Prior knowledge:
With 565 residues, this protein is of the alpha+beta class. Helices cover 31% and strands 24% of the residues. It has helices spanning 126-135, 160-170, 183-194, 197-205, 225-232, 237-256, 259-263, 266-272, 282-294, 333-348, 366-381, 386-397, 407-421, 471-480, 483-495; strands at 11-20, 24-31, 36-39, 42-45, 47-49, 52-60, 67-69, 72-74, 77-80, 91-93, 101-106, 145-149, 208-211, 303-307, 310-315, 353-358, 431-436, 442-449, 456-461, 504-512, 516-523, 526-534, 544-551. Helix 11 packs antiparallel against helix 12 (386-397).
Amino acid sequence: xxxxxxxxxxxxxxxxxxxxxxxxxxxxxxxxxxxxxxxxxxxxxxxxxxxxxxxxxxxxxxxxxxxxxxxxxxxxxxxxxxxxxxxxxxxxxxxxxxxxxxxxxxxxxxxxxxxxxxxxxxxxxxxxxxxxxxxxxxxxxxxxxxxxxxxxxxxxxxxxxxxxxxxxxxxxxxxxxxxxxxxxxxxxxxxxxxxxxxxxxxxxxxxxxxxxxxxxxxxxxxxxxxxxxxxxxxxxxxxxxxxxxxxxxxxxxxxxxxxxxxxxxxxxxxxxxxxxxxxxxxxxxxxxxxxxxxxxxxxxxxxxxxxxxxxxxxxxxxxxxxxxxxxxxxxxxxxxxxxxxxxxxxxxxxxxxxxxxxxxxxxxxxxxxxxxxxxxxxxxxxxxxxxxxxxxxxxxxxxxxxxxxxxxxxxxxxxxxxxxxxxxxxxxxxxxxxxxxxxxxxxxxxxxxxxxxxxxxxxxxxxxxxxxxxxxxxxxxxxxxxxxxxxxxxxxxxxxxxxxxxxxxxxxxxxxxxxxxxxxxxxxxxxxxxxxxxxxxxxxxxxxxxxxxxxxxxxxxxxxxxxxx
Length: 565
């Protein structure tokens, strides 16, 4: 519909409450035109990218441990919250309140309930149901943070409504296996995923931290050097990766940054210096994206969150990979050193819980871990030969590209975690926790070797929020945890002379299937992992079942009672 001169600007997506610390917050929005955005008296002008208009409002001067309802005004007119909405007012709740700190987390959210047909066989959207669940509770029971660990949108698996939209845009039918091509088409994915009323309210109220995974670009993104050579030779990849990274920078990465990081971000500052709101920033951001894809050292997607006694280090385990077959790394040396330094700094500052976020699990089911190590060894040893090419085909077909498939990085992360857990970097935290998604089931695993750990070390994996795990995947992951499968794959790995790892771990819970949300509850030096799963049998859109409440630490003993005289 054409815009009417003098009419009120409209809020298209958002607000999203993003970075929140004890004294500040950032609020992200997309609007239908250039305008001034106001939140709690702080104002920001929109910036333009590809004809779309966005703003990030930095709200400062908040009180630690406070809870402040807020509204969004565009050019002075209130546009949020909707006066007719039954949902509670959006609030900014800063860290510092007494009681436990709760992190809700998960990954892999395919569109929304309204855009998925019953014939798709996808269970209820756990994030949607979770939003309704907490909206009906007192705010003291809401989570303090939401961590989304990859695949917030699917660029390579499109819903029927999006295919219809693309068909109109392109002027030709889009097949069922169609994919997005450029930035404009990416904007459609975010609008589809984040416009659901319940999730929109959730994102406006619970501070969110995000990181990408492969489906936000394409399945198998950066699996190997062979994969990269093949895809970069196509005629469509340049627009696809540029559109994907530009949209990720706008919709996700900006909100991951603190006000201090924004002040030091050269790209963001260059955009803020533009005085003409019609000056489209897409060419500048495309240049940034092309540079990031060609040289991952040009940008750091990893970041840190400070939550009082909790420190989260979010690790980019996808875009910054070193893919040289003879020197494969999940991260280059500089970024890995940055991650290690962030972990040590957390210990230096006396935090009780160090949380590592990575879209891909570090500790996999043992049999799958051994297969990935075996496959990597064959690829390295036989690169360029028939055996190497067959190993590469298996790697791509079976998605063998988790931390285990980057063996040196797996061990380096293990060494860093063990150093923290032994107290070698200072007073050991109560826990070191790795949060991940990707594998379309949930489980908890605990590091058991080497010995001498003061901290408890756990891998907590939750996926998907809204998707499905086909039956063969369910069978495969159940087998992956079995003792006989571990013995078999370990034997094969040893025959291939795969270097054994000094690390060992045991499954503490799982696997669990279905759409699900995890809750990490941290209270002093105590920690618990709760898992909430949407009911697949009744396909209820109103209920989540708590299937797990797992202590992650030994109970803190109560102080001895005083004896009366």
